[in-house]
Amino acid sequence: GGAARGAAHRATEADLARLDHINDEMQAEVGDYGSPRWAQLDHQFHEAVAECSRNERVISLLRSLLAECHYLFYLYPSRQSASRPEDAAAHMQDVVNDHKELVELIRSRKPDEAEQRARADIRKSAARVARAMVTAELLTAGSSPMKPRSRGQIS
Known about the structure:
By secondary structure, the protein is mainly α. The chain is built from six helices and no strands. Helix 2 runs antiparallel to helix 3 (36-52). It is globular. The relative contact order is 0.16.
């Protein structure tokens, strides 16, 4: 959220053009779920928003967070029996639309709204990852017969 707030205060026209360009490239990837290019572009978009803030601490923290989240957002879901392709394409289009809305708030110099939008997107992404993990756990549990536990056994 803080990166978007800072970007709304400090982004230049060149920064905004860069954000638009990255998001346009993401639009071209919609439907190719699991694409390494999609993951790279999404990472670039979020890093570019942080760079627009001109705050070295925010930039450094966001880079670390992106590196930590890469597995959860891109590698873990691709290892699961992914959702239907049309669901994945709809999700990708939602991401592109969310990015467009964020860029417009930054362009309009609306720091409070940009921060709120970014925080809402973070919550949405976290919920999606949590659902994917729970679904994977349920599928895994459902695919192997449960062994009865003996009395007093802790699993």
